[in-house]
Fold each of these.
Amino acid sequence: MKRVLIIGGGGMIGQKLAHHLSARGLNGDTDIEVTLFDMVFPKGGAPAANRITGHLADTDAVGQLLEARYDVIFHLAAVVSGEAEANFQIGWEVNGEAVIHFGRKLEEEHRKSKGAYVPSLVFTSSIAVFGPPFPDKIPDNQPLTPQTSYGAQKVCAEMIVNDMGRRGIARAVAIRLPTVVVRPGRPNMAASSFFSGIIREPLNGQEAILPVSDDVRHWHASPRAAVRFLCQAAGLDPALLGDNRALTMPGVSCTVAEQIEALRNLAGDKTVALIKREPNETIQRIVAGWPRNFDPQRAKALGFEAETNFDEIIRVYIEDELDR
Amino acid sequence: MKRVLIIGGGGMIGQKLAHHLSARGLNGDTDIEVTLFDMVFPKGGAPAANRITGHLADTDAVGQLLEARYDVIFHLAAVVSGEAEANFQIGWEVNGEAVIHFGRKLEEEHRKSKGAYVPSLVFTSSIAVFGPPFPDKIPDNQPLTPQTSYGAQKVCAEMIVNDMGRRGIARAVAIRLPTVVVRPGRPNMAASSFFSGIIREPLNGQEAILPVSDDVRHWHASPRAAVRFLCQAAGLDPALLGDNRALTMPGVSCTVAEQIEALRNLAGDKTVALIKREPNETIQRIVAGWPRNFDPQRAKALGFEAETNFDEIIRVYIEDELDR
């Protein structure tokens, strides 16, 4: 039996991953046991999974957690971009220090096992590791020049994940997720939250605030694609990654205007009319520093695939969240 | 009066910096008070400086230290490359976690002062942030792709230093020192230790071990140049740095063979005969992943200057260490 740990298992993607693992197993292997670690869990929530409540910055709790030597670890937990920009302390503590501490604890288990324990580790990084000026399509060898606290923290995390892989402590890979839309539920503190909001709220008959201009271009994938990326990354042969264990995932590059047109195609003018334009300078400034398009050749060559257009991304939301 | 803190003030460069500040002040300003923080201090040591004994990984000690709100902070403390590669735990704890924690504590003081406290912060990074394959001369926009634990840790440190600068928490700059030679005193655990050893030991009439081949090319500056870089960096207008507050310092690019010839020029064949070739695979492997030459245009444009050849570097050692 394979034991799977999802750190950040109470979050949106963690829950979707837990549901997926419970329904379909991990890459075809259904003989698995899933444990979720998070500060809080949604009511109801993913079935057939153990839940451990704790804080990533609680070094004792994380040390104890890792003593169980899970075969596969998904590390999804993070302070989101908007909160990391608003609060220097908590962002650097959780996304920086705590991730390094997690790596040290994992190495401790590896060393205690005399090298026998080498888990698969999939860490979710972000395209925020890149900063402007950007080329039209960002190549895989784009330098890491983040211009936000969140991005800087994710670079730190990529560094220790890569180092663990290089040293054979874990079969490690960091995947840089596109901005995942359409997120179900309520807005969060991520500066990117509106990208989901302008689709989700109107589809649910509610007003949504658009804080940026229509020509903002960004990089997206659905939660379903994100879960697929995570599972595929867990099954990857690390030898295929070479010296660089951070992979930019594929996505859909489109403007806010194109997203609104996709919504209009699927749900009509009345739905689109629920989007209210309320420019927000802070969000505009953060988003202006974000990448707009990628050429993720390495991930594509390894078989990773996102949606091909924004209509598909909206349809995934309708199928997975509204048609239930 | 300007209050200056040197974290790592007991080390070789910290002591030389303290001596320099005591003799000449900081960029012409002699109304300064110098405090050194380190685990241990050499006997005798730099004059007229307060000494505080503590460990960088002791979060309480660092928090207390920073409450004194120094005007200028030099952060030189690190676990050296060889030790960081040998010991995953201590390298990531000190060079990774503890540096992030230091940044958080500094931000706490900045915030408690309602933004009035904005110290100058000079952090010593390393050319180990770069990894192969290298171009002939590494440009300033070379991507950060470290292939050692030490290099990965220095990237993390650069990330939080840059973030502090971006947010106006400190007038922050990270300088990537060349490999500093000729270090006085005894060999240390840095994989680069032999670069000093093959000059220092023969000049002192002792045998030295050369663990790599003569055609190894590397990037060097003297301790005197390193101290000059530090002081200059402390006086730099951060606005000149733009979005990237990490600067590769100038240096001398030369092969081991050229270094040995420089020693022969200055000290003769008998001295050179004290160099014994004893290939060491671990050191060869680490050094093979190190940069060999740079084109540090940004630093040069800002007025930073190293020596121009290796003869000069040896002469600095003779003047500063042997002629006393």
Amino acid sequence: MTIEVDYRFPAGADAAKEAKVIAVGQTAGSWDERFSHRAELLAQHLGRVVCVTPQPDGTSIATVEFPEHNVEGDVPTLLTMIFGKYSMGGSGRVDAVRLPEDYGTPPKFGLAGIRRILGVPERPLVMAIFKPALGLSAEDHAAILREVAFAGLDIIKDDEILGDLPSAPTMERLRACRRVLDEVEKSTGRRVLYCTNLTGRGHELSEKARAMVAAGANALLLNVLSYGYGTAEALARDPQVGVPIFAHPALAGAFAASPDFGISYPVVLGTLMAHAGVDAVLYPAHYGSLPFTAANEFAIRDALRARGLACVPSAGIHPGVVPRVLGDYGNDVVLNAGSGIMDHPDGAAAGVQAFFDALAVAKPGVPFTQVDVPPTGPLRSAMLKWGLGKK
Amino acid sequence: MTIEVDYRFPAGADAAKEAKVIAVGQTAGSWDERFSHRAELLAQHLGRVVCVTPQPDGTSIATVEFPEHNVEGDVPTLLTMIFGKYSMGGSGRVDAVRLPEDYGTPPKFGLAGIRRILGVPERPLVMAIFKPALGLSAEDHAAILREVAFAGLDIIKDDEILGDLPSAPTMERLRACRRVLDEVEKSTGRRVLYCTNLTGRGHELSEKARAMVAAGANALLLNVLSYGYGTAEALARDPQVGVPIFAHPALAGAFAASPDFGISYPVVLGTLMAHAGVDAVLYPAHYGSLPFTAANEFAIRDALRARGLACVPSAGIHPGVVPRVLGDYGNDVVLNAGSGIMDHPDGAAAGVQAFFDALAVAKPGVPFTQVDVPPTGPLRSAMLKWGLGKK
């Protein structure tokens, strides 16, 4: 089996030459007559330029094939091989990566597993984010959770920047919230997932994840790019961490925001995540508050779905965009809102209700009109505040 | 104590506004009257824009100050805070980061510790890289090591892409090389460090590092950016991994190669490495084979030295550039050559000797002339092959 990578080179670059540099320089390298007795073995490790294709915009895409036996079936050795030293060499960008089906770590739950835990087989899932991000007590978190969980929310997550701080220790927050989750399940029969942010120094991260799960965490949030894909794989393969892992995209732009350098968003948030063992991935929606193209969003969606992960388009999601989300995703999507729930004019519970009201009346892909939206109530208030989202 | 970050914004961006977005959006965020009872606590987590300074080239640099108590004293939570979500927001780049002295993890050995182990208190250290990168057997590695180690080499490292492959298991290579290291020490009294590449899936990386050290590894090579700074910190803090850690810069260009996006080389390879527990950092020399500016190289050098780490300018180092390296670094530098030793016309041992010959006659900062270089011998052969390096 081989690994294929598409590199994009800017207009004017000698794409064929650069591709050759990658195929050789990122694998066995060159050798002279002293190693002729090893030539056969060395040659088995060389990459190969498959094709170089000029693009309408003047750039070129070169596809390089790498032997799978050069790497260890994980994401870190893959990254070192396909872009390690070459990333400092100048002119190429990783546009796409195609991996063997069994490469890396599959999701343990994926969307289907998350639906099973929640007992919600079909409709889109509704997810919220604790706000404000920093500065609330464990009891503040529990109070917010009580409000939204009883309103019907499926999933809630910490803000990605909320770590394990002396002013708000993760374990205290988790225990306070876990009591609420139990209360909700006892009185309504519904399960709610709380993605607790897993942070901490490298040497204690695994222990901490296990301790959190032992203390009642039923899902984890991980800033995969701050900790490394290897950390996600480690958690996914740890039998003592048997809960869904939600990947946050923080730092993705450090790799992907430039059109000419780095590694593309579909690779960073799609392909690599899909082979790193996580179950759900958050990423910007193209009609959200971050500048993000529809092409990137859909490429990420397709890469995640190909491996059964849950898609969580995020940032600037509010009830007014629900028809568009349904048009792009159908029912298999997690509607994840921060302000779009927490800052609802009538409070956070109304914020949740507005999403369910939106789901009840939305026609996929058809923007809401006055007629669709009830004249009063949570959805109407949300629409008055946030409208239909950016074009 | 506070953390200060300089963000560079392109000409035309509203730097003051963007800086404010970062100072608030990457910390507590905004809140309304419902959280007025927590206002004092929330405000303690806010960042602050220190200044916005237009630059001669039309860009602007904004300095934002973050409370140290927002993060956990490690690199991953720092990255999430200073650039996490904002990295996807568009227009800024992290140019410089200033951390409290006690932030993160100090190097356990640094240059002084490496010198102590080697028993080389003053002169520049000479380091080689195994070549070819992939496809050699453990015994091939041992044979190469024997040649260069008896020639006086101080340090050798695996190629960063050489993982733990069925065709060449790390432990076999390590054991074969360890026998040579012992042989050299027994017969010459000299110690040689072998930076064995640490690779593997996240959940077994710590165990593997311990097993490697138990099996005789006296230094480790880590692709810090492929595995995450947290992995480096974990290794540095592990009492069972008591050997110097050499950080390879693979993947650094994915963050830093763009002038407009991402995180600058001095931050990625200098500041963050210096606070992540590693002892030595490899990075491109500006007269080497990779496109790299002198300004970036010197900023990295200064960030590493401020914390006692060893500087290892690399890529395209050969005997002809020794006077320039000495001019830039003085004696406190590791001269690290791959081809520049292994591809010496008279063999790898002559490649090592050529470096020592160069050190014997070089005047710091003054390029070699015909007069300096003996008319025959390893240094002359090296000069005929590689010259004085690029201007």
